[in-house]
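re the bet — no i am not wrong, look at it urself. input seq straight from the record:
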Amino acid sequence: MSRPLDSRPRGKLGPLENLIFLSRWLQLPLYLGLIIAQSVYVFHFCTELVHLVEAAFGNQHALTILVENLGYKANPILNAEGARVGYEQIKGLNETIIMLVLLGMIDVVMISNLLIMVIVGGYDTFVSRMNLEGHPDEPEWLSHVNASVLKVKLAMALIGISSIHLLKSFINADKLPDRVLVAQVGIHLAFLLSAMALGFADRLLERHLQPAHNGH
C-alpha cells in the first residue's frame, strides 16, 4: 500500500515540526558568546602589543610581564658543583623573546580566524542563511561551506595553531622538560592524523553520494 501524500503545501510546517525547526535559534547565544570571547582575545592581543612596545623602550616592568607570560628563562647560574642556583637577570629584549611574543600574537590571530570561521560558518549552516551573495566582503569559503567542509577547515586551523605552539616550544627548548616537548609533538601528530582521517572520510562520502546524484 502506498504512503498517502501530505496534503499540506510545500514549505508549510505543522506545529511540532515548526517547534523543532525553531529550536535551531537556541544556538544563537552560543555564537554571541563566541563573539564576546573574541573581544576578550582582542583585548589580550592589544595588551601584549603595548607591553612589547613599552619593553622595547626600556620599561622593565613591561619586560617582566612579557617574560612571565612566556615562561621564558635566561641562562642558568651554576655553583661550583655545577648545580643550578638561579637564572641570569633579563635586562632587555632579545631576539628570542621578541620571536616568542610575535609567535604568541600570530597564535591569537589564528585562533581569532578560527572563531570567525565557527561563528559565521556555523550560523550560516545551522541557524539562518546570511544572504551575503554579492556582498563585497563575503568570505570566499562561505559559498561552498557545509558541516563536513567546516569540520575539515577547523581541523586544518587547529593544525596551524598547534604548529605555532610547537615552534614556540622548540625556540625555548633548552628551558623546557623533554616530556613537555614529546607531549606537544604527540598532540600535534594526533591533530594531523585526525585531519587526514576527516578528509579521507569526506572523500569516501563524496564518492558514495556521487552515483546517487548521477542516478537522479
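see?? The radius of gyration is 25 Å. told u. also The beta strands are 76-78, 84-87. so pay up
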